[in-house]
Amino acid sequence: xxxxxxxxxxxxxxxxxxxxxxxxxxxxxxxxxxxxxxxxxxxxxxxxxxxxxxxxxxxxxxxxxxxxxxxxxxxxxxxxxxxxxxxxxxxxxxx
Length: 95
What we know:
Number of helices: 3
């Protein structure tokens, strides 16, 4: 539906885990930020979201991390990662 596909993972003890769909749904359904830009987020599966082109990844990561920690989903020592599918699977160099 949206132009960009991203992976949403967390790293705990050096291991990558997809964020459960429950977490992603919770974030997407709750407009706690009052930022309409996050309306363009659609969870599709564990660790996968589709997002609109005007959704800034850095702000999305920060808002998601804040929400996941408030809900006690994200373990304290864990790190949240947002990875654009095209960048993750691409072998092209940026220049």
